[in-house]
Every structure is written in structure tokens, then in C-alpha cells.
Amino acid sequence: MAVFEGPLLDDARAVIARYPEGRERSAVMPLLYLAQSAEGRVSRDGLREVAGLLGITTAEVEAVATFYTMYRLRPTGEHLVNVCTNLACMLRGGKEVYEAAHQAAGMAHGQEISDDGLISLHEEECLGVCDFAPAVQIDFMNHDAVTPERMRELIAQLRAGETPTPARGPKMESFRHASRVLAGVEPVEEARA
Amino acid sequence: MTLDVERRLTRDWGDPSVIGLDGYRAKGGYQALTRALEMSAADLIQLVKDSGLRGRGGAGFPTGMKWSFVPMDTGKPTYVTVNYDESEPGTCNNRELVERDPHRLIEGTAIAARAIECHTAFIYIRGEYLWQSIVLQRALEEAYAAGLLGTGIAGSDYDLDIVLHRGAGAYICGEETALLNSLEGLRGQPRLRPPFPAVEGLYASPTVINNVETLMNVPDIVNRGAEWFRGLGTEKSPGTKMFTVSGKVERPGNYEVPMGTPFRELLEGFAGGVLGGRELKAFTPGGSSTPMLTADSIDVHLDYESIAEAGSLLGTGAIMVMDETDCVVAAAERMVKFYAHESCGKCTPCREGSWWATRVLGRLEDGYGREGDIPLMHDMGTNIMFRAFCALADGTASVINSSLKHFGDEYEAHVRLGRCPLREPAAAEGVAS
């Protein structure tokens, strides 16, 4: 079954049209986000189809997809929880927050996805929110100055089927939804929310 | 000590209306663009040269001079690329600048484009700045709808498109040639220079790459002139600078101060001093890749020249503060782990060196340090520094070398005691048993 078909194919064509003529290859990154939004990760089919859309090889697309951490090539939870433990966050308890996330999600270290498929956990490098450390992102939206206790609450909310309200900006429904926004194809009326 | 300094880039931070186009215009927004469109490219470049504005992304290169290097007679298009990849650990001022005032970046970008006769500009934003990309996309849509972008901008006959390009989680893409590769749809690995981007950058065409804060200074320079800009800061580093103060301080945050402000004033006046009244132990003046300094440097002036004299770099102005209870070996381990993770893999000293350094730092911190580990760390620092293709490896080496230089005793205590001297012995035994 095709990843890019119907409205998603139209989105893909709009993404490609952003770049100057003859420079379509520049669209590989947003197209990978689009593929990820459809499948919850970037699959082999996704890689092949992005290559087909751009007239380059699957290997060339895979080279890009494997270089960047925000493309997930393996199965990923409905929600992606990123916890920064880099220095500015570590100094304010980021490592303890990361541990709390594992415990609350019932995940062992190295386990990429919770047993129920709901949550993926990722130890992050600096997220650029050092002024509100420790920083956590859920589906790439920020939660500020998170304590271990707050981390447990956030995981509990996800478990209850709720989307936690981020510190700034609109809610992302899921990792897939965030991937779609990252492709730049979602309307942005809520930008001043 | 006074907190009553003139704010330029942050003067409208208290007014959320400027996030929208109407609010921004009500405060005089886009007048500089109109003015720039009436000036010749040469005059515009001369104005920015006269202002003395230097790149805020780390290197401090004069912005006007960078623009003047772009040849406009090659028959190829020229490009402006905005580096909004902001990924240096400890740095988040570009994030907040755009969050609170997105049109100022668009206006600055458009003026830069005018100066090098560029008709397609790109803003490369790191993927993790999802919310900021929404803010910026919205602002771009507003600017297009108002005729400030697109065909015949601001009533002129000048055409300009700005394309927002989201990254996907790679520190190295803040390195300008890696950024260009990423934008071209390749892996974000740095390119050999020369040719420099000014001659052969994006799509092998003449390209200017500027940092967000740099460009956001440009509208005021056009409106108020070079002399006005030089009214704050030092002779060699004019203007204000954004600093991110994080870690063990009472009020972490982004602060705008004139270049040359003493670190003590920023720390005690703005950031409220060290958390809990504890003693300052060490700080990075410009992000984790700049050599750490100690409490002895508390009176260093925050400008390119003074920090260089103190043995470090202004970098991105990201000051991470450690207090007396923080272990420098643990901090070094975490910072080096970052470089190991972010190494693009191209060069052996960086790829292998950073990984092995995390192994040695990790065992020192965990109480399994060996007699030869400290000379080994010295050896690694020396052999990584300046031996890779780009500066990422130098960041690794800076952490190692500066922590050894200032805190050699602390390293030795780790080996001698067989544990971290700053951790409770009972806790350390608990881990070992």
C-alpha cells in the first residue's frame, strides 16, 4: 500500500514546490516528516516513495533519514517523550526526571517503546530551553521546569488518554500529528494561542 | 550595579501584540525595510560595516564584511540563509527572540537579502523548535498577505521569498556548511573550505549565512544609524548581546546587556546570583564548547576580546553556572557525551576520541578511575584539538582541557578516593555493592 496517496500526495507536491526549480532534493527532510506522520515512523516503503517523489535513490534518502534523530525508523509510541539531561538540565535535576519517566512508564533502560505501544522515551541533548530547566518535550511541545513528580503526572495523563497542556503553544495530539506540523503542512491559526 | 540598561532586541518583550504584524507595525516595524529598499546595496552594506555589528553565532565575524564578500556578478542567484539551528548546549536566546518578536527576524532577513540582491532566503530552524516554527510560519504568512514578501515587496519592484526549513535534530547543522548540506537534502556533514559559502554556498551559489540575533539587530541599524548602534557596547564589540544564564542560578533566563558588561553584574544583578547563595565554582561563558572558567573570572567583561584574554570564548553567550556542590568530572562527562552523540562521524579524532573520552570520564566519576587516566585525558585532549575537519571536535577538547586545567585536583581526588568526592560515600558504596 502506498504511503503517499490522496491528500498526502498533494501535500508532498506542495512541499516540493517550496524549493527553487531544479532543487527539489531540498524537500527530502519535510517529506520524511510527512511519511512519518502517515505511519508513525519512517518505514522502508516511506523511504522508497520519498526517493521516487524526488528522483533520487532510496539509499540517498536513507542516508538522510538515519542522520537525524527526529526521524524514527523503528516502531515508535503514540507519544514521544524527550527528557533533556544535558548540563543545564542535569544541574537542575534532569537525570532524576529521566529516571522518573522510565519508572512511571514502566520501561527499562534501552526499551524504546512501552509494552502497550503508547510511549517512547528518549534521553535528549540540549533542547534549547535552558531557562526553564529541566526541559521535557512531549511530541515536541515543551513542558517547563519539570520535577520527577510532575513527570509522573505527565505520564499518567498520557496513560489516561489526555494530552498534557504544553507551557507554550497548542497541543499536539500525537507524535504523528507533530510530524505533520513539522512538515509545515498544517494550518497555523492557533499560533497565538 | 544597575539593571536599568537600554534594551534593544528585547524592548518589546513585555508586549505580546508585536508577535502579530499589526502590533509590530504599530511600533514602527517594517519601516527599516522600506528604507532599505530605497538604498543601494552598496550603501546598505557600508552602513552595516560602519555599525561594527559582528556575528552573534559564535565567531564574531563582522557582518557587513561578510555581506561584502558576496560577488553579485556571477550570473548565479545569491542566497541568504538564516542559521536558527541554535543547538549549542546552554543556548536558548534565539528561541525566545523569535518567540516574542518574529517579524523582527523576517525584517532583518529581508534587509540582508536586499543587501546582496537575493530573491530567495531560507530560515533553517532546528526541528525541536516546533512551537517557534509555528510562530514563524504564521508571521511569514502575515507578511506575504500584507505584500511585505513575495512579488514587489513593500510597494517596491523587489521580489523576495522566504522559505522556512525545519531541521530534524542534529547539532552539527549549526556549522554553516553542514547546514547548507542539510538544506540541500544531504546528510548534515561539513564541507571543505575553500570555497567559502560567500562564493560557493547553497546550491553552489554565493551565500550569506547569518545568525538570528545578528539579523534582528539590522532593522534598528537601518532606522537609527551606525553611530546610534555604537552607543552601547565596546569599540570593538559594539551593541548589546543576548546571554542565556542557566544552571545553578536563582533566575535562569535570557538577558540582554551591552557588550562588555562584567559577568558579575549579569550573574548577581540579572540572574539573582548563585542558587541558594552557594559559591560559584565554574561557568562556561559561551556554551559547552567554550573553555570553562572559574570563580576567579567573575569580573571578566563579556565581550569577544576580554573573554579571549581570560582564556575562553564568547561563543553563543550561553553561561552555564556550576556551584561548589557540582562535580566538574560529572559535568565534563555529560558535556563530552553530547559531542560523542553529535559527532557526524566524518573524522576519527572526533568520532573515536569523544566516545573514548566518555568511557574514561565515566569510570572516573563512578569510582573506577585508574592511575594513568589523568595523563590519558591530557593526551586525548591534545590529540583531538584542531585535528578534525570542523570545530565540533574542538568543543570536546575544550571541555577536557579546561576542566583538567582548572580542576586537576578534583580529577586526582576521584582516582585517589575511588569515588566522586562530591557524592556521599554511603551512596557510592550502595551503587558498588
Descriptive report:
The complex is a heterodimer of chains A (193) and B (433). By secondary structure, chain A is an alpha+beta fold. Chain A has two domains: 1-74 and 176-193, Arc Repressor Mutant, subunit A; 79-173, 3-Layer(aba) Sandwich (Glutaredoxin). Chain A has eight helices and four strands; from the N terminus they run ααααβααβββαα. Chain A has a four-stranded mixed beta sheet with strand order 2-1-3-4, covered by helices on one side. In chain A, a hairpin with a 2-residue loop joins β3 (136-138) and β4 (141-143). In chain A, α3 (44-54) packs across α4 and α6 packs parallel to α7 (148-159). The longest helix of chain A is centred in the N-terminal third of the chain and has 12 residues, at 28-39. Chain A is elongated and about 50 Å long. Chain A starts with 6 loop residues before the first helix and ends in an 11-residue tail after the last helix. The mean pLDDT of chain A is 95. With 433 residues, chain B is of the alpha/beta class. In chain B, a hairpin with an 8-residue loop joins β8 and β9. Chain B is globular and about 70 Å long. Chain B folds into three domains: 16-229, 3-Layer(aba) Sandwich (Rossmann fold), CATH 3.40.50.11540; 240-323, Ubiquitin-like (UB roll) (Roll), CATH 3.10.20.600; 328-432, de novo design (two linked rop proteins) (Up-down Bundle), CATH 1.20.1440.230. In chain B, the strands form three sheets. Chain B has a five-stranded mixed beta sheet, covered by helices on one side. In chain B, α2 (31-38) runs parallel beside α6 (102-115) and α13 (328-342) runs antiparallel to α16 (392-417). Chain B has helices spanning 21-26, 31-38, 41-51, 63-68, 93-100, 102-115, 130-145, 176-183, 212-224, 226-229, 263-270, 304-309, 328-342, 348-365, 373-384, 392-417, 425-432; strands spanning 79-84, 120-125, 161-166, 207-211, 240-247, 253-258, 261-262, 280-284, 293-294, 301-302, 318-323. Chain B is built from 17 helices and eleven strands. The N and C termini of chain B lie far apart (52 Å). The model of chain B is unreliable at 428-433 (pLDDT under 50). The interface between A and B is large, with 55 and 66 residues.
